[in-house]
Specification:
This protein is mainly alpha-helical. About 55% of the residues lie in helices and about 0% in strands. It is globular and about 45 Å long. It starts with 8 loop residues before the first helix and ends in a 19-residue tail after the last helix.
Length: about 220
C-alpha cells in the first residue's frame, strides 16, 4: 500500500478503520484479550447515536493515530471523522456476542452483497418481495437525503445482519461513508450498493464462515 502521506483521504479512511477494527476484533475473539475487546465494543456501542468526539471513552479508539488529512479543523466533525466514527460504532453493534468475525475484508462483503445474502438467508421474512425489489430499510437507506438519515437506517440494517451472522467489510464501508458525504461521489456509492445487491452468486454462502483476507487497492 502507499504511504499515508500520498494516499487520498478516502483510502486513508479505509486503511485506518481496517486496522482499528482488526485490533479490536482480534482482541475480542482471543481468550487473552476478550475482556479488553468487550470493553472497547461496549464503549463504541454506547456512542453509536452520538457525534464523533462526543464520547470521551472512545477518543483513543476513534482519534488516536488518525491521519492528519482526516482530522477536522473546526468545531464540527470532518467527513473523515464521521466516516471513522460511523464504521467503528456500527461494527461494535454488529460484533456484540458473536463468536466469529463480523468484519471481513473483500468486496464480496460489501453492503449490497450482504443485503442480498440477508434476503437469501431469511427467505421467509422476505418472501413477499418482488424480483429485484429492495428490502424496505435498505431502500430507505439508499434514498436517504442526509448522512444522519443514512446512519439511522444503517443501524437498523446492521441489526438485521447481526441476527443472521452476515459479515461486512467495515473498512470498505467506512470509505463509502466518506464518499457519501460528497455530492460528486455519493451516486457512485449507491451504484456500488445496487450492483452488489443485484449479484446472484451468494446463495451458497448462507450460514458459512468466510476467510478474512485483505484486498489490495
Amino acid at each position: 500500500m502507499k504511504s499515508s502521506e500520498t494516499e487520498s483521504p478516502r483510502n486513508q479512511v479505509r486503511v485506518f478503520v481496517g486496522r482499528k477494527i482488526e485490533a479490536i476484533q482480534n482482541a475480542y475473539l482471543s481468550p487473552t484479550g476478550k475482556s479488553k475487546g468487550a470493553r472497547e465494543l461496549a464503549f463504541l456501542r454506547h456512542a453509536v447515536t452520538r457525534k464523533p468526539g462526543d464520547t470521551p471513552a472512545i477518543w483513543g479508539l476513534e482519534f488516536e493515530g488518525m491521519p492528519d488529512a482526516l482530522v477536522g479543523r473546526c468545531d464540527d466533525p470532518s467527513p473523515g471523522e464521521w466516516a471513522v466514527h460511523a464504521a467503528l460504532t456500527l461494527y461494535a453493534v454488529h460484533q456484540q456476542s458473536q463468536s466469529i468475525p463480523m468484519h471481513q475484508w473483500g468486496r464480496e462483503h460489501g453492503l449490497g452483497q450482504a443485503m442480498r445474502q440477508l434476503v437469501l438467508c431469511a427467505a421467509d421474512r422476505y418472501e413477499s418481495l418482488e424480483p429485484g425489489e429492495l428490502p424496505r430499510r435498505f431502500a430507505a437507506l439508499v434514498t436517504a437525503e442526509s448522512f444522519s438519515e443514512t446512519m439511522h437506517y444503517a443501524r437498523q440494517l446492521v441489526g438485521q445482519l447481526r441476527r443472521e451472522t452476515i459479515p461486512l467489510d467495515y473498512a470498505l464501508l467506512a470509505q463509502q461513508f466518506y464518499d457519501l458525504q460528497f455530492s460528486e461521489k455519493a451516486n457512485g456509492v449507491r451504484r456500488a450498493w445496487g450492483r452488489g445487491f443485484a449479484s446472484c452468486c451468494l446463495g451458497e454462502m448462507c450460514g458459512q464462515e468466510q476467510a478474512s483476507l485483505p484486498e489490495n487497492d
